[in-house]
Write a structure and sequence with these properties.
6-stranded mixed sheet
């Protein structure tokens, strides 16, 4: 499965972005999917996860209530709606299964700055 992330950019604090992760070349709908981020000089961390059905969702504390995760199994796409962005959200954002089963995509850069 190939993963392609998009939707990042430069945004001011308090702004919003919607990230998309499109999967191709294999089965997508049976996996827990996660969004990860890697800030400069830091390791990659998971910020949000969603069950195959979309019924269950899990969030890292710093993004809870700000970054709702969703998925469309027909379109093989996972989304991350990023609201009330903060400078500390600046990072490259990636998607993958909850256990990093697929090869990593190139990610999408999110920069929050005034």
């Amino acid at each position: 499965v190939q993963l392609v992330e998009s939707g990042g950019g430069l945004v001011e604090p308090g702004g919003s972005l919607r990230l998309s992760c499109a999967a191709s070349g294999g089965t997508f709908s049976s996996y827990y999917m996660s969004w990860y981020r890697q800030a400069p000089g830091k390791g990659r961390e998971s910020v949000a996860s969603i069950a195959p059905s979309g019924r269950y969702r899990y969030y890292e504390d710093s993004v809870k209530a700000r970054f709702p995760i969703s998925r469309d199994n027909v379109l093989n796409t996972v989304y991350l709606q990023m609201n009330s962005l903060k400078p500390e959200d600046t990072a490259v954002y990636y998607c993958n299964t909850i256990n990093s089963r697929f090869s990593w995509g190139q990610g999408t850069q999110v920069t929050v700055s005034s």
